[in-house]
TrEMBL record:
Name listed for the protein in its UniProt record: Putative deacylase
Keywords: Hydrolase, Metal-binding, Signal, Zinc
Cofactor(s) needed for function: Zn(2+)
Stretches for region Disordered: 48-85, 104-148
Species in which this protein is naturally found: Marinobacter excellens HL-55
Segments of skewed composition (Basic and acidic residues): 51-64
InterPro entries in alphabetical order: AstE_AspA_cat, N-alpha-Ac-DABA_deacetylase
Signal peptide location: 1-29
Length: 471
């Protein structure tokens, strides 16, 4: 423990030590041709590759301006809310205490709430939480070691149930879009630690065919002991339940749920699902990790997508151990974008490809979530050597120039040089072989699996190491 602290302290005061290994790559990237190529981050995740073009370039440290969408003033919501000590009075009817369930044990499914809880109740509760932070609760935000004096947690209400401190439970969320009698509930796992701390939310399978995230949420949450947790973890392993059951990325109306956040109560189906999740669950989070995989037969190195132009988000990415971080401003309607707009620090985590369960990718995801929780003082891990820092990337896509069958010559995660052949597109009729070459020095952070492609298909996602966000 002591040694670990020492190493951490050293790294905190001499962060360049941790980065020393990355420097030659940075130098190489900036001296190569990539300096003349605009640094445009692209997406392949929850997202069509085309969203890429909309991403704003990452601002360099020198030109960095204060973010416009930082955390809103708590007072804005607090104005019309009752005083913090009125909390007891506000709690409406008889308390429905969630059963304490050992998440490692098999348990019956949670019961759905008969009625939708009015959203006003939720906004009240959200605004109540803010003043209580100013009161006796320890501020949860800074990246610090475990607080010296843990403060006992209070119970909190989610989805109409009160979760007592030091307990874990399964709750039920329903977006209320189906025939009432046939309606399925979506399980929500909650661990409320004995001590106060931040609320971390984990969402998986917003795209129903993205399976690695479901398993990442399960492993990260079922490892938690509420008696040793400071803060809360809320996990929705399968957000898009109907899509999941059909092996489909989309909602039943063929819409992409990750384009409709924060949703509208009276909107289309996707709007309503998004609205219900956002109001009933997401607004309770201080931090959010939305877990995805590559789409359309593409695979991704485990990585975060984060808007590095937002200082709060940039700081948040530092907690994720050695994970790659790719700058992307995100698209309108994405969960992470909407969460950041609502003052929640949020990133997308990408791991592997859709419709598969990939042990390596899952491991990497769980490890970096554990690292995140430790850095925010929520848990205490076994001995860990130092604090590996994430590696930051700007990125570009290399596209196929011809139709045919794509055969890759390199592997995911490979370091490549400008001009290097990454793969071939073979024309099955003429037998022509068209090489695809890397446009820059960097690392393959995402790529298409071998398949039939047409000209313009985004085949390789190349990350070039970027400057670390400001200290
Ligand atoms: Zn996705």
């Amino acid at each position: 423990m002591l040694l670990r602290r020492l190493i951490r302290t050293t790294l905190r005061h001499f962060p360049m030590l941790a980065l020393a290994a990355a420097l030659p790559m940075v130098a190489m990237a900036s001296s190569g041709s990539s300096s003349s190529v605009p640094m445009v981050a692209q997406l392949a995740e929850d997202e069509n590759v085309e969203d890429v073009i909309r991403s704003e370039p990452r601002r360099s440290r020198a030109t960095e301006e204060p973010a416009t969408n930082s955390v809103p003033e708590p007072s804005a919501a607090g104005d019309q809310s009752p005083a913090p000590d009125a909390e007891q009075v506000v709690v409406p009817i008889a308390r429905k205490i969630a059963p304490n369930i050992d998440l490692k044990e098999i348990a019956p499914l949670p019961e759905p709430e008969p009625e939708e809880v009015p959203t006003s109740e939720f906004s009240e509760e959200v605004s109540l939480e803010q003043p209580s932070v100013a009161g006796e609760e320890a501020p949860s935000e800074p990246l610090v070691d475990e607080p010296e004096e843990p403060v006992p947690a209070e119970s909190f209400t989610l989805l109409g149930k009160e979760v007592l401190p030091g307990t874990s439970t399964r709750l039920a969320w329903s977006p209320q879009i189906q025939i009432a009698g046939l309606s399925q509930i979506t399980p929500v796992l909650v661990v409320n630690g004995v001590n106060t701390g931040p609320t971390l939310c984990l969402t998986g399978a917003i795209h129903g065919d993205e399976l690695n995230g479901i398993e990442i949420v399960r492993r990260a949450m079922y490892d938690l002991d509420p008696e040793k947790l400071s803060g809360r973890v809320i996990g929705v392993p399968i957000v898009n339940l109907t899509g999941f059951q059909q092996g489909s990325r989309y909602l039943p109306d063929r819409r992409d749920l990750n384009r409709y956040f924060p949703g509208r109560k009276e909107g289309n189906l996707a709007d309503r699902v998004a609205y219900s999740l956002f109001e009933n669950v997401i607004r309770h989070c201080d931090m959010l990790v939305d877990i995805h995989t590559g789409s359309l037969k593409r695979t991704n190195l485990p990585q975060l997508r984060a808007d590095m132009n937002n200082p709060d988000v940039a700081e948040f990415t530092r907690g994720f151990d050695r994970m790659a971080v790719v700058h992307s401003t995100g698209s309108l309607g994405m969960l992470r974008t909407s969460a950041v707009d609502a003052g929640i620090r949020a990133v997308t985590m990408e791991a592997g490809e859709s419709l598969r369960i990939q042990e390596h990718q899952i491991d990497a995801g769980v490890n970096s979530l554990n690292s995140l929780m430790e850095k925010h003082g929520m848990i205490s891990r076994m001995f860990v050597w130092g604090d590996p820092e994430p590696v930051y990337y700007d990125s570009t896509w290399v596209r196929a120039e011809h139709g045919g069958i794509l055969f890759s010559e390199i592997d995911l995660g490979a370091n490549v040089s400008e001009g290097e052949v990454l793969g071939y597109v073979a024309d099955p009729i003429t037998n022509e072989q068209h090489p695809i070459r890397s446009t820059s020095n960097g690392r393959i952070i995402g790529m298409a699996v071998d398949q039939v492609v047409m000209a313009g298909f985004a085949a390789y996602h190349i990350g070039t190491e970027a400057e670390v966000p400001g200290e």
